Amino acid sequence: TAEVHDAIAEYVNASRLALDAGFDGVELHAANGYLINQFLDQATNLREDDYGGSWQQRNHFALEVAKEVAHAIGPGRTGIRLSPHGIFNDMTEYAELTEQYTALASGLGKLGLAYLHLVDQSALGMTKPLQKTTEAVCNSFKASGGGAVILSGGYDRDRAETDLQSGDADLIAFGRPYI
Predict the structure, then answer these.
(1) What pLDDT is stored for residue 83 in this prediction?
(2) Enzyme catalytic residues
(3) Mean pLDDT over each residue of the chain, to the nearest integer
(4) Are strands 78-82 and 115-119 parallel, antiparallel or unpaired?
């Protein structure tokens, strides 16, 4: 457990260094099987301490990292990237996933983070799109005081315009069309 606290401190230090280097802020990468995502997922998090077990406990690491980074550099300079149904790097689907990520988004929103970047990996054939989860997570983040919602994953102009006009997103991120 002591190493978990060291890892949180490393996120804080890296965030401070990013600002020292001239960055405007940081995006905590909690998707695609990266460390925070591993703590969230029941298949990779086999811990039996406060950071493992129930989905509520598996959320602790993500919430603590976000809280400490936001405290160090400011919540307006802190965003987070999530992909609830992403199965990249052996992440899994499980029954309480929507409930878990909705609660996580609420906790992140209460921190006043600048944004939530939600990735839909279905365009890559990695999972099926689940609009119910996306809506629940985004609504929970905003209702709790979070900032902007950024959606990404397989967007074209028409789909982006639809999600922007409906208010489902404040911004749409495009990657592959530019690459």
Answers:
(1) 87
(2) 34
(3) 89
(4) parallel
